Amino acid sequence: MGFPPRRCPGVRPSKAPLLLPFLLTALLVGSRGDGNAMDNVATERLAEESHRQDSANLLIFIMLLTLTILTIWLFKHRRFRFLHETGLAMIYGLLVGVILRFGIHVPQSMSDVTLSCAVNASPATLLVNVSGRFYEYTLKGEVSRSKGHQVQDDEMLRKVTFDPEVFFNILLPPIIFHAGYSLKRRHFFRNIGSILAYAFMGTVISCFVIGLIMYGFVSFMKVVGQLGGDFFFTDCLFFGAIVSATDPVTVLAIFNELKVDVDLYALLFGESVLNDAVAIVLSSSIVAYQPAGDNSHSFEAMALLKSFGIFLGVFSGSFALGVATGVMTALISFLSPHVTKFTKLRDFPLLETALFFLMSWSTFLLAEACGFTGVVAVLFCGITQAHYTFNNLSPESQDRTKQLFELLNFLAENFIFSYMGLTLFSFQSHVFNPLFIIGAFVAVFLGRAANIYPLSFLLNLGRKNKIGSNFQHVMMFAGLRGAMTFALSIRDTATYARQMMFSTTLLIVFFTVWICGGGTMPMLSFMSIPVGVDSDQENSRRNTKHESAWPFRIWYTFDHNYLKPLLTHSGPPLTATLPACCGPLARCLTSPQAYENEGQLHDDDSDFVMNDAGVGSMYADVTVSTDASGSRTVNPGRPSSGGGGPFDEGLDHELARAEHEVAIRGTRLVLPMDDPAEHPTTVETLSAT
Question: What does the entry give for GO biological process (predicted)?
Fold first, then answer.
């Protein structure tokens, strides 16, 4: 017997059972929304912490550079020459690396989760599905099983480890460009044959000597079981190529301060500038060595010839690209189609300097993008810019560009050396093998000796000014390794062989900078190298007619009569040097300022033509001859338009006739006299009208 439900008057039935599903749905949606909000807050906190950590890491390097600069000032004030700023930056980097590696520990994050999945390869990007939401993770490197609890510490060290491309695309270009832009071409071209021999033949000899010696050590290491991975002959040659790049920045700084013999300085500086370019192209050619068949490390003549062809092609292409960009910068602006030589861009020094800077830097990136070598391109771009573009700049822009690239070179170089010290402790995959390290030091020493001594003997057979044995010993001792060697070794550390190369390269750089660089002063004293040499006075005393080879003397004449007037406001107008049939074209290509500056040369270092190619009157607009009584004879001259005018025998007769002669080139004066102390002469600045 059932009872019907009782209804209380004034009371409605409850609808809670009907609202329950909607309440549960709203609760779930709200909880998911709260979870999303919490995830967003956590992500923002992580991003903020990462930003603060990145700022702190950059602050570390800024403080390192600041401390280095202050210590450099103290060393210069106390005249302490046993440690260069680069070695000092490395010491400070080592100290910071020790503190970061052993003194600071980051607490383990509770949110870290270790999961296992069966993947045959290591993908660069990983998508993880977490409750229907996809998250992207990027590969940072392998973590050792024994260091599983040190992931946070390794992450902190990884933060202060830069991408190798930062060195190649940001730090190396200003260093290499400054080397070419500040090159003293007068001394460089006087010794150009010897410099090219040391840079090209010497680097190749050093590469193969080091490679063969290291292959012997590696073979011995395999026999005794001291090799933990593959190490082929091509790897040994690659190691020989990267450690053949010299960077005697410490020695050159001391040479410049003490005014060491200009030829020794030119030989050492010219070799270091060019052999960096040769080393990077040589290393790329070795990597490109790919013989046919399954064994990619066997010897094959065709593959060797192909690598040699790649070397020539990459180097010549990079050279042509750098020179073309430099010539283009002398003529056109990157942002406008107007010809720079004929525009008023020089009225805006800031824009002019910015354009010069961007065009110079873009040379490096353009060469890399085209498959060439940016180091070679930007080096010869700097030489071309200094020879041509510099003359078109306003006086303000000339000072600004010099100071700008000098500053960038100083900061980038010291940054790299301080980073070297820090990397010794922050790099996660060091492989230090005692046998390999000993073999590397022996190979580097013998490779440098095989470069300097045999080539010097051969060069002395044809040189008027011989390279003395004391100069050879100093060049042997001054073969330091530096920024380029480090950058080439850190660019690829994926394999066991490359990791061992990088670790050994660091030790080689430390040793050469600290020991060889610090021993420069005692070495100069022991070898009786003359110091305090006035380069201008030394050049004035030399009979330099036969010091430059005839191809370069022909090049100087062609450059002065045609290229200088075409690309700059210097030299004679093209109307005076081109044939009469080319008169309309010559008038079109000659700027009005060239007529005003006819016969004058505005390049501060361009008197290398006079000093190194026969002391020609090609740039002189006035010649003042003084006899013993002090009377002066003014002979206005005109540049010769012929190919051999500056170097003919009539010039020698004219120079021999004058007891004291002063050739005035704008504001640059050269006094070729036998003994300045015996015949004091007062020189007055005259201007041609």
Answer: regulation of intracellular pH; sodium ion import across plasma membrane
Mean pLDDT score across all residues of the chain:
74
Residue 589 in tokens: 């290509």
Query: Which residue among 504, 537, 570 closes a domain?
Result: 537
Long-range contacts of 216-219 (CB under 8 A, 24+ apart): 216/439, 217/435, 217/436, 217/438, 217/439, 217/443, 218/436, 218/439
pLDDT digits (tens, 9 = 90+) for 595-630: 666 545 444 444 443 333 333 333 333 333 434 443
Cβ proximity of 247 and 480 under 8 Å: yes
Find all residues with CB under 8 Å of 496, minimum gap 6, and list them: 228, 229, 230, 231, 431
pLDDT tens per residue across span 373-418: 899 999 999 999 988 888 888 889 889 999 999 999 999 988 989 8
- 204 and 347 share a domain? yes
* 510 and 556, same domain (yes or no): no
pLDDT for 167 equals 79
**Range(s) of the domain holding residue 514:** 164-291+300-537
DSSP 464-480: SS---HHHHHHHHHT--
Helix or strand or coil: residue 669? strand
How far is Cα 614 from Cα 546, in angstroms, rounded to an integer? 7
Q: Distance between CA atoms of 480 and 471, rounded to whole angstroms?
A: 16
Q: Which helix (H) or strand (E) holds 40?
A: helix 16-78
Q: Can you state the angle between helices 262-287 and 374-384, rounded to 10 degrees?
A: 150
pTM across the whole model: 0.75
Looking up tokens 């510099």, which residue turns up? 390
Residues 572 and 479 in one domain: no
Distance CA 477, CA 398 (A): 36
